Amino acid sequence: MKKLFVIFMLIPFIGFSQLTKDVLFVGNSYTYGNNLPDLIKQIALSFGDTLIHDSSTPGGANFNAHSTNAQTIAKINQQQWDYVVLQAQSQEPSFSPGQVASQTYPYAETLVDMIENNFSCTEPMFFMTWGRKYGDQQNCQFYPPICTYNGMQQRLRESYLEMAFNDSASCAPVGMAWKKSKALDSTLNLYTADNSHPNIYGSYLAACTFYSSIFKKSSVGSTYWPSAIDSATAYSLQQIASSTVLDSLATWNIFNADFTYNQIGDSVNFYNLSSNYEQVHWDFGDGSFSQDENPTHTYTTNGNYTVEIFALTNGGCLLDTFTVNISVNLSTAIDDMNVQNKAVVKILDVLGREVIPKTNQTLFYHFNDGTTEKRIIIE
């Protein structure tokens, strides 16, 4: 499991490759079919990125089997991976919460611990798979929620995200990209004849999703797609995969630095939106710094300031940054004493819950002078 740390003196020297990733895929036929790792590699190459990969994918293997599989263990320990992707047996995570908690989660945690014991900088990434086309008819009688595609997909989503958050790991939301594709174009079949395994369309959609999950870049515009797929369909699948991942990085617990802010004159409240991180460091651009989660900073000089957040994870091995430019004009900040002293106390949504600022949502700003303002930030 990840542990907290204090390592800010190393920030100038920490970094990770932007273009080359070493990835081990641990799974079964869902990963093996259509050579999914190579599809991801080809998409990466089309953007000048490099994916170096290996796999352990015995048919039907679940996390329990992988936790004692000599080949899987040897491959985990063979080098210092950037990512190790973990894909469970396709039905198992969709079973009842109690059954998954006892039969799946413990072995997922065993594999994550094994990965981190080999190299603490490796990021485990769970492969959220897709529901079967007509649900799990084999186990439907034992657990009715999985009798349909939607019910099975919902349980897969819940289980994979719970594993990701419990084990401080990322999640590649392939199953949710499939769901979006099915909703947008129900005529595009992603399955083979068994209504379970992926055909080339399904595997290409999975590959685009993985590219965005691993490299945090859009796959839209990739010049690579298998010959069986036409260009228009390839472009559509690229769009679906990229938006599924990149519009919701925090949802999938993918390591990412991000923040928003609320400025009143010379005083700025910062709100950390980073995901799957262990510690953050703020540079306010005026020679001031902070290690608080959600700091407030007051500027003393007019100017344009570049504010940067540094998010760190995996014991400080991984660093991500995000910057925003802020303009400060002290003359407008002190037009009168009321404006100068006015500061946000809390922000509530329409249900009265305290929240951080979000776009396209009605929010109520409560100030220290007792006033309240209704605001909608349009993106």
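Next protein, fold it too.
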Amino acid sequence: MWEVIKKNRFKSSMLLIMMSVVLVVLGFVIGSSVDVESGGFVGIIIATIVYLIMLLVTFSQGKSIMLRMSNAHEIGPDDYPQLYNIVEEMRIAAGLPVMPKVYVIEDDAPNAFAAGVNPKKSVVAVTTGLLRIMKRDELQGVVAHEMAHILNRDIRYMTLATVMVGTVAIVSQIFLRSMMFSGRGRGGGNSKGKGNAVIMIAAVIFAILAPIAIQLLYFAVSRKREYLADASAARLTRYPEGLASALEKIGSSTQDLKVADKSMAPMYIANPLKPKGQRLKNLSSTHPPLDQRIKILRAMGNAHSYTGYQQAYHAVTHSKKSIIPASALER
């Protein structure tokens, strides 16, 4: 799967570049709305400082931030023996160099995620709700799916994206709220006042659209990863039905994960936030349709190879595009 790993490294680099451009432009527009002459330059400097700080925080503390956001606590082999044993089994099957740390989230909604910037510093977290309703082979399927994200280096990209998307949203919100409370933008009748008003309107529009555009990109990129992680999980466990049954149970749950928010939603094996409104469901969903993922896994039958998943994907979706890299299909 070297193609996937290489592509994820490239996408991580492109994400960092894209986020820096968005933050710098956002800083310039917001700065110019405050002071037309020199505000843009000051805004760029402030945005660059914010970006560098967030970059440092992401690489050093990104995983810890997400675990704290999820109220997850680390467990050992004596706390949840079956879970710990399954993680160990799947680590060996995936050929990972280091055992991921195992965390549990005290929440009734069944779900799980993996995080970290590389396989040597990764974690797998599951909810108590998931542990309560899963049989062993179903739990194995879920853990294998998360292990696949670690193996394919998805976690690096998604960890970076989660923190960076949050940064753009925070900067935008700070500006918009300061506008509301300070009453800025009431230009005078002269041409300079009108110019300020135009820049102010542009700043508001950009501050609203920037985080939305990045979030939609974030959603779109995360969907294909879920198909590939499902395929990898079927290969690691050699039992596609285990993951299919687990996804069915997760999908039948009506509970929202209390500790989840929009920025972290793509990290989970299934969308932890139930979409409001059928029309916007596909646009805003962080994952492919759950029923489609289940049908693909069950269409594999007794097959548990990447080729078997690709064939099942074509049969269910009637799409000609390839989910699995060519190098993996050659195995």
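About the second fold: The two ends are 10 Å apart (CA to CA).
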